[in-house]
TrEMBL record:
<keyword id="KW-0520">NAD</keyword>
<dbReference type="InterPro" id="IPR050177">
    <property type="entry name" value="Lipid_A_modif_metabolic_enz"/>
</dbReference>
<dbReference type="GO" id="GO:0102765">
    <property type="term" value="F:UDP-D-apiose synthase activity"/>
</dbReference>
<dbReference type="InterPro" id="IPR045869">
    <property type="entry name" value="Arna-like_SDR_e"/>
</dbReference>
<dbReference type="InterPro" id="IPR001509">
    <property type="entry name" value="Epimerase_deHydtase"/>
</dbReference>
<dbReference type="GO" id="GO:0048040">
    <property type="term" value="F:UDP-glucuronate decarboxylase activity"/>
</dbReference>
<dbReference type="GO" id="GO:0033352">
    <property type="term" value="P:UDP-D-apiose biosynthetic process"/>
</dbReference>
<dbReference type="GO" id="GO:0046982">
    <property type="term" value="F:protein heterodimerization activity"/>
</dbReference>
<keyword id="KW-0961">Cell wall biogenesis/degradation</keyword>
<dbReference type="Pfam" id="PF01370">
    <property type="entry name" value="Epimerase"/>
</dbReference>
<comment type="similarity">
    <text>Belongs to the NAD(P)-dependent epimerase/dehydratase family.</text>
</comment>
<dbReference type="GO" id="GO:0071555">
    <property type="term" value="P:cell wall organization"/>
</dbReference>
<dbReference type="InterPro" id="IPR036291">
    <property type="entry name" value="NAD(P)-bd_dom_sf"/>
</dbReference>
<dbReference type="GO" id="GO:0042802">
    <property type="term" value="F:identical protein binding"/>
</dbReference>
<feature type="domain" description="NAD-dependent epimerase/dehydratase">
    <location>
        <begin position="19"/>
        <end position="289"/>
    </location>
</feature>
<dbReference type="GO" id="GO:0005737">
    <property type="term" value="C:cytoplasm"/>
</dbReference>
<keyword id="KW-0456">Lyase</keyword>
Length: 388
């Protein structure tokens, strides 16, 4: 029985394309590859230095999509194959980056090189070869909210005009240069400006994505299990690690910063719409987040503790959280975004996308995955005698 042909948002049939996906072996890349293999006819050239998170899509040869995904182990800093792979593709998606805050102030050079310098050839090859580019930026380009500079008791702090982040009107407010936290946001902002200029001056077709805290299974690593023992991943993995080890969750500077979290599977739907609706997505910068899932980091810690107790069957600790200073946790030069609520007008208008999953539900499925994947491994690590 012939299946119904897939159509875009304007009712036109979708033609199979080849996508050069750089950074395909990471958290977002692995989910995007999964979606493209399971639900579309497109081919993916998956480029990364690692492939552990997409191994299940590459082997065995009998998988239904075998032949539609090819892994190329390469570092885009120095590999002459890059241009050829971009030329072979209809679309390039660039996800490659250093994107863990613990690196921004401690490895600022690597951070700036990774997020700006290393992305330059990708933009250049796309522009010179008339290839479409979807580039992953970040909500961190907004920096701090205007409201954060108002007096603490100002009524204006409650006015959305002072904190909701809009692609076409919000300013980008970073801290001083010695606050090296902003090395990442600043590098991302400059590459956004370069891509925008390639579009304006040379007609390059582009879409820029600004993710707002996408979270879910396979995000980062659990220190000492599938990543370095001293490594500091993003907050979901930090708190998961604490819960798995039955340690208190560490709240940086009291956990007062606010974030909106979106489920990776919802966010990937938005990326697929961008891939398959170029006429609606080209030339746009899109916020992709869930404005309904806002919490302080302290509330996130409390909710994760409750959810983990439910999915693991273990009781919570008597003291589930402890406070830690940002200097102690991240070192000199750390600073923070105070609040991040995405305005959804543009993505709604262009692609009709809306996030669906509540914070509780996304934490339930993610922590079920974390428990299933890591609980036994953690027990073994803890049981191992420490070498003296
Ligand atoms: N996860 C989020 O919520 C989020 C939020 C904002 C922005 N982003 C952006 O989205 C992109 C992907 O993020 P992620 O969460 O999947 O991160 P990730 O670290 O899991 O994935 C990045 C991947 O890029 C690869 N990579 C890095 N440098 C490379 C190089 N020189 N050559 C080849 N491969 C290289 C890494 O090996 C990794 O697999 C990044 O650009 C990040 O800045 C993500
Ligand atoms: O995900 C995003 O949208 C972007 O934001 C993240 O930045 P941030 O949200 O600050 O990073 P997290 O590590 O997820 O931290 C969130 C908050 O939790 C706090 N935190 C983190 C870890 C921890 O153990 N305890 C803790 O209180 C941090 O200080 C911060 O306030 C990263 O910069 C990028 O991956 C990305 O560009």
């Amino acid at each position: 029985m012939a299946s119904t042909p897939r159509v875009d948002l304007d009712g036109n049939p979708i033609k199979p394309i080849t996508i050069c996906m750089i950074g395909a072996g990471g958290f977002i890349g692995s989910h995007l590859c999964e979606k493209l293999m399971a639900e579309t006819p497109h081919t993916v050239l998956a480029l990364d230095v690692y492939n552990d998170k997409i191994k299940h899509l590459l082997e065995p040869d009998s998988l239904p999509w075998a032949g539609r995904i090819q892994f190329h182990r390469l570092n885009i800093k120095h590999d002459s194959r890059l241009e050829g792979l971009i030329k072979m593709s209809d679309l390039t998606i660039n996800l490659a980056a250093i994107c863990t805050p613990a690196d921004y102030n401690t490895r600022p050079l690597d951070t700036i090189y990774s997020n700006f310098i290393d992305a330059l050839p990708v933009v250049k090859y796309c522009s010179e070869n008339n290839k479409r580019l979807i580039h992953f930026s970040t909500c961190e380009v907004y920096g701090k909210t205007i409201g954060s500079f108002l007096p603490k008791d100002s009524a204006l702090r409650k006015d959305p005009a002072y904190y909701v982040l809009k692609e076409d009107t919000s300013p980008c407010i970073f801290g001083s240069i010695e606050k090296q936290r902003w090395s990442y946001a600043c590098a991302k902002q400059l590459i956004e400006r370069l891509i925008y200029a390639e579009g304006a001056e040379n007609g390059m077709e582009f879409t820029i994505v600004r993710p707002f805290n996408w979270i879910g299974p396979r995000m980062d690593f659990i220190p000492g299990v599938d990543g370095p023992s001293e490594g500091v991943p993003r907050v979901l993995a930090c708190f998961s690690n604490n819960l798995l080890r039955r340690e208190p969750l560490k709240l940086v500077d009291g956990g007062q910063s606010q974030r909106t979290f979106v489920y990776i599977k919802d966010a990937i739907e938005a990326v697929l719409l961008m891939i398959e609706n170029p006429a609606r997505a080209n030339g746009h910068i899109f916020n992709v987040g869930n404005p309904n899932n806002e919490v302080t980091v302290r509330q996130l810690a409390e909710m994760m503790t409750q959810v983990y107790s439910k999915v693991s069957g273990e009781s919570s600790l008597e003291t589930p959280t402890i406070d830690v200073s940002s200097k102690e946790f991240y070192g000199e030069g750390y600073d923070d975004s105070d609040k991040r609520i995405p305005d959804m007008t543009i993505i709604n208008k262009q692609l009709g996308w809306n996030p669906k999953t509540s914070l509780w539900d996304l934490l339930e499925s993610t922590l079920t995955y974390q428990h299933r994947t890591y609980a036994e491994a953690i027990k073994k690590v803890i049981a191992k005698p420490v070498a003296s």
